[in-house]
Amino acid sequence: MNSSEYESNPILDKLPKHLRQYIKPQNYEDYTPINQAVWRYVMRKNVDYLSKVAHKSYSEGLQKTGISIDNIPNMYGMNRILKDLGWAAVAVDGFIPPAAFMEFQAYNVLVIASDIRQLENIAYTPAPDIIHEGAGHAPIIANPEYAAYLRRFGEIGCKAISSAKDFELYEAVRHLSIIKEAKGTPAEEIEKSEKHIEFLQDNMGEPSEMAFIRNLHWWTVEYGLIGTLEDPKIYGAGLLSSIGESQWCMTDNVKKLPYSIEAAKTSFDITKKQPQLFVTPDFAFLSQVLEDFANTMALRKGGLSGLQKLIDSKELGTIELSTGLQVSGNFETLISHEGKPIYFQTKGKSALAYREKELVGQDVNQHETGFGSPIGRLKGINIPIEDMSPRDLKAYKIYEGEIVSLDFTGGINVTGKIITGTRNLQGRIILITFENCKVTHKGITLFESNEELYNMAIGEEIVSAYHGPADLKSFDLLDHSLSTGSQNNDQLGLSELESYYKLIRDFREGNNTIISRTKVFEVIQEKYPKDWLLPIEIYELAILSNEKILPEKIKAHLENIKRDQPNLGQLIDDGLELATIKTKV
After folding, report:
1. Is 196 annotated as a binding residue?
2. Would the annotation count 137 as a binding residue?
3. Alpha-carbon span 486 to 357, nearest angstrom
4. pLDDT tens digit string along 113-157?
């Protein structure tokens, strides 16, 4: 993705390349008149209803973030306003990997799926769309406490370690979102995809860190309530953008629970309405629970369990040793002794870093086939190597030019000639380089080379383990291809219907007042008898003009649609009520 393909700003300029690959141009001109009508209907309904049940930050945030009720937001216009809040927004390609989504948040960037739901999915869609992202997520970040939580969640969440099952579920949900919004997808294909997701959700095995933190994200950022159990308010974007579920969640059918770290263990089904929701007393409490959860992660605990999580994930990850040395790669095997790791091995390209900066000469070219090293203390010596002063190292003959045989606790032996050592800024040794080196474990050779140099990591223990590389520049992380989909509606025969939507839109905005709304309605009634949204827009204009006959004709027509399609009854009734309410404001 070239930055020239989207409108950049100082916040977006700081994004690393691997995140920029998910950004795509918004192509505002691709939004059709029906897309605009869908946005307007949802926003008018939401603002009317949510002003009563949403946290006060929602209504205030709509104004602060420049979200219009009548028009789909333009990303450029949003960014001009968001920059005053220290944030930015970008259009992305639908669902993106959870870790990438959260990493965007860590950079104070909202990711907004630029597509918009189809009219038939106006009440709810599992696919990320601009209604969910723009009208749901954006307004609440105007609250400073919540914005801080969102950013912190991104920083911690993008380090969560996933499992192979997580990726399989992500791919399945992404597939469902695509086919559900694609025109003409057979119902049986959607049902098959939903059942596949249900199967995966029921067979995830031991939940990963990413599964837990995804749950926390769902029950706060997406479906969170705030206040008291008796009188909760909505702040979650999923509820703010769903005209159906925002009403449903306020009924006694949905159990309200006090928010706690237990929410991390509560899974969810993206294809169904939520049977329970969690209520936080305030936004600050969200950060408290997040930090409590972070204390359970390998990011802060490290150790044998953290290393094992990275091995099980089969994804690029990093361990940090007690010296601050960071090893990044795909961790393959480990050797443990008395509950502690004493040796680790990566497979394929690996790199070493210190304080998130790659060490000179320790890149993926140097470690193209992997990196392995013992960790821990030397056998029979109380002081760990990392705590040895230059005099201590010389006394134990761990010194340049010496041929040594180092026995580690647990049976690892390293034999070879020391060439040099690498120290951190505090002067502690973090790496020792050997030649003619042999590494064994209880007589079994782990590494042997005469000409190739061997770099031994120094560290008594693993203090941190997390997803992704220490230095983002060490690895080629560009693996995403943008879809070629467009907002343009290419269904046969629809262009005429779109033109009528545009006529009514232009009339409402004062761009074309020389049209007969009655004639437009009659054409819709005859040619598109199942369309209900445009008749509601015409009804609204007729009510505003104090017409008598046309509104009654439209209401009669809509009653016929409700009889033939009962599932549209609530949507139609709400639309008619909104038109009436507007005349009273």
Report:
1. no
2. yes
3. 40
4. 888 988 988 887 777 789 887 888 889 999 999 999 999 999 999
